[in-house]
Amino acid sequence: MTRPPTFLRFDLRRVSALVVKESVQIVRDPSTFLIAFVLPLILLFIFGYGVSLDASRIRIGLVLEDDSAPALSLAQAYQNSDYFDVDMARSVAVVRDRMVAGDLRAMVVIPSDFGAAVQRGERPVIQIITDGSQPNTANFAAGYAEGVRANWAAAENLESGRAQAPPISLATRYWFNPELKSRYFLVPGSIAIVMTMIGTLLTSLVVAREWERGTMEALMATPVSMAEFIASKIVPYFVLGLGSMALCTVLGITVFGVPFRGSILALLAISSAFLLPALGLGLFISAATKNQFVASQIALLTGFLPAFLLSGFLFEISSMPWPIQMLTYIVPARYLIPPLQTVFVAGDIWSLFLPNIVIMLGFGVAFFALSFRATRRSLD
Amino acid sequence: MGRLRAITIKEIWALIRDPRSRITLFIPPLIQLLIFSYAATLEVDNIDVGLLDMSAGVHSSEFASRLAGSPNFRTIKRLQSPGELRAAIDRQEVIAAIVIEADFDRRVESGQPATIGVVLDGRRSNAAQIVASYLQDIATSVGADIGPLSRAPPGGSVVTNWFNPSLDFVWFNLPGLLVLIVSVTGLSVTAQSVSRERELGTFDQLMVSPLRTHEILIGKMIPPLIVGLINGIIYLLAARLIFGVPFTGSVALFFFALTVYMLALIGVGMLVSSISQTQQQAFLGSFLATVPVVMLSGFSSPVENMPGWLQIANLVNPAQYFLVISHGLFLKAMPVGAVLAQLWPIVIIGCVTLATSAWLFRARME
């Protein structure tokens, strides 16, 4: 019988002793508690209340250059609209200054010949000016402002052509989220970020500290093998990651009213499959940098920011330029977001889960292989 | 003054001595800027949709060909049955599926109102709504061509976009990312510089040296300030040379505002490091502070979308004000008065945080 190479030696008793040591360190250090339990709360809070992509009232200025009855009636229509908070002004210059200051997002100008045009039976034209420095709000504002005008014109019978039903209409149905709450995708997305923070950032800091303080060499001088060492680092953070995932899930469902239509088994499988590459990346960063500050910056750059911006959680991957689309394929969080959103709002769709799980596990194996190599090389 | 100069030189050396941390300070922010200013777009393009055409007549084909011709759509997957439709949506192969019923062409021919059904993936509700509005436009244009009578009149409003005429997202992202990345690096460099000395034990040496508390503190403020200002210079150059984003305001005003903002951030970072024992705690603590500062700055979603009580709590967030200044100076040629109106809350925040952290340091020393 050939003995396995020493770095692969695996003794359960030794591993469990190390796991206990590591867990005690976790429990003792308040900063782990911050990341595992306070950060999820902050993120859920921010995504539940602070970040809302749902349209809400837009502050606009209304410049009324005309005192005629139709102009006042259109101005009234803007003031009654649910889409806008309207500030009246007498001149464009005043509103312009407030748009520069960021106070107002758009303005509607009802020109001086507005009433006269209506009287002559012409179609009166208004001007809509948006603050283009916020393109998303500008689009909403222009669309809603035109909508208010069109509805007003239809009600005043200024445009007979609009009154009849369009020949082809669209009947839309939104599956899984008929009320279109952005919370439904933001809360599962925050779970992805929390697990990335625990897996990658926390792990890379902890292991880099061992290198920085020299306790790593001390550990390596003991009979502990590489495999045992890595297992001892993974198990506690894996459990911690699942713990804060559970916390987010429970709060998401109870406080923020996000539905959970899949099974707990599926959620566990998806989360576990993601934690492996997240932990593997953390270990690799720490072994490659051996410096807490550098490790933390790299972990933010390769873990946190991609999970946030390149995973499809907030921004549609298909809209990005193609070199960046290619880059998203090596971001493990990209494969986590679709199954995570699905298990919450759609249910168990294993034909979507399985390919993503397999890819995440593949990344996990690759990162662990890399950190094995980086650790061994640095010991030689 | 001599002592102050000495500690400043020492702090700068501590920052740039290690080649790897030197690189880490400037290269990642630049990479982030390059990648994320293009990635962070709320536009929806290259859309994959499914089409279940049970009518297969002239008008439904017309709809399909306009769909294929639209620049927003990438592939149109032909579906054969409702079962296929469900599977395609479930697996996120398509974000929307269009259902044209068998009687669609007959109804259009006979002049009756006809309906096109669209099933959208509510898991991505934001993108789905935008897709629905694109489809609505196509349906309207097909409908408008059917009968000359129903042609829609030209719009009664003229839309102009100031400051960013083509509503280019990169013009919005770049000034926003500048705030975001400067905040992230500023907070982490500050928090780290104190706690590293504490962890290595050299902080005690500093304290027994003839340096006064405020001198130590000022010395500690130098590195993050330099990092922030250098990143500011890099971004201004990148905005002009790489991204073609205009900078319409005063450059001097920009660096003045950036310095004030950095001091306020440094105050927050100092507060975090004065209550942490180790580098790990300082770093994670500063990260914890970074998340709300950045996320509630108004970059990811407008401040006015937040509930009222959160807007009030957010008044203490310095990033909120600096974001307005950054957008204003880049795109709107913001005048001095408007910049100062945003700057004074940052000054107050900076004074409070710096004074509190100085007090905490002193309390610890005695």
UniProtKB/TrEMBL annotation, chain A:
Belongs to the ABC-2 integral membrane protein family. InterPro entries: ABC-2_transporter_component (IPR051449), ABC2_TM (IPR013525), ABC2_TM_bact-type (IPR047817). It comes from Parasphingopyxis lamellibrachiae. It is a multi-pass membrane protein. One of its GO terms (cellular component) is plasma membrane. The keyword Transmembrane helix applies. PANTHER family: MEMBRANE COMPONENT OF ABC TRANSPORTER YHHJ-RELATED, MULTIDRUG ABC TRANSPORTER PERMEASE YBHS-RELATED. Pfam families: ABC2_membrane_3. Residues 152-378 form the ABC transmembrane type-2 domain. This is ABC-2 type transport system permease protein. The keyword Transmembrane applies. The chain crosses the membrane at residues 33-51, 184-207, 234-258, 265-288, 294-315, 352-372. Keywords: Cell membrane, Membrane, Transmembrane, Transmembrane helix, Transport. It is found in: Cell membrane.
Automatic annotation (TrEMBL), chain B:
It is a multi-pass membrane protein. The chain crosses the membrane at residues 21-40, 169-189, 222-243, 249-271, 283-303, 343-361. Keywords: Cell membrane, Membrane, Transmembrane, Transmembrane helix, Transport. InterPro entries: ABC-2_transporter_component (IPR051449), ABC2_TM (IPR013525), ABC2_TM_bact-type (IPR047817). One of its GO terms (cellular component) is plasma membrane. It is found in: Cell membrane. Residues 139-364 form the ABC transmembrane type-2 domain. It holds the Pfam family ABC2_membrane_3. It comes from the Bacteria. GO terms for molecular function: ABC-type transporter activity. Belongs to the ABC-2 integral membrane protein family. PANTHER family: MEMBRANE COMPONENT OF ABC TRANSPORTER YHHJ-RELATED, MULTIDRUG ABC TRANSPORTER PERMEASE YBHR-RELATED. This is ABC-2 type transport system permease protein.
